[in-house]
Specification:
This protein has about 160 residues and is an alpha+beta fold. The chain has one domain (about 35-150). It is about 50% helix and about 25% strand. The chain has a 5-stranded antiparallel β-sheet. Strand 1 and strand 2 form a beta hairpin. Helix 1 (about 5-35) crosses helix 3.
């Protein structure tokens, strides 16, 4: 019986350490996202972000070398920004995540779990190297709602 208090004490200390580490990680991510929002790259893509805010977004892909926005209607690409075309190097994983978070701050609907799903996916390069991209995808129910509303005549 003497070991239980020690076990629970150790578990409590481990939980506190994990919470502090998570809080520290989140603070670092916020700092990186703010740096990204003040960067020349973000300044260059901001017009595309503003255009995306005016459309119903179907999907947003963020990879180390490009950012692509797709619209629900008319279906298709709203715009694409290829970093190398504008003299930027590919993003490292930390900057890619910072770009995702900056976009979430400026296009708030992307943060809404009931409307969009954020997922990370693997991209295998021709040299065999694995990179990761992020994709916001519209949820089916929300897309159906948008398409249904578009088909209804306006009654005034």
């Amino acid at each position: 019986m003497g070991g239980w208090p020690l076990f629970f004490g150790a578990a409590l200390v481990a939980a506190i350490i994990a919470l502090l580490a998570d809080r520290n990680r989140r603070q670092h991510e916020q700092v990186y996202a703010e740096r990204m929002r003040r960067s020349m790259l973000y300044y260059e893509i901001y017009d595309l972000v503003l255009v995306a805010k005016e459309h119903e977004i179907d999907r947003v892909q963020i990879e180390r070398n490009r950012i692509v926005f797709y619209a629900v209607y008319p279906p298709g690409k709203i715009g694409e920004y290829v970093l190398s075309d504008h003299g930027h190097r590919p993003l490292n994983p930390q900057r890619t995540l910072a770009l995702v978070q900056a976009l979430m701050a400026d296009v708030p609907i992307l943060e809404e779990n009931r409307y969009y799903r954020l997922q990370r996916y693997a991209v295998t390069r021709p040299n065999g190297q694995k990179d990761y991209g992020y994709q916001f995808t519209i949820r089916s129910a929300y897309k159906t709602k948008l398409m249904y509303a578009r088909q209804q005549p306006w009654i005034g």
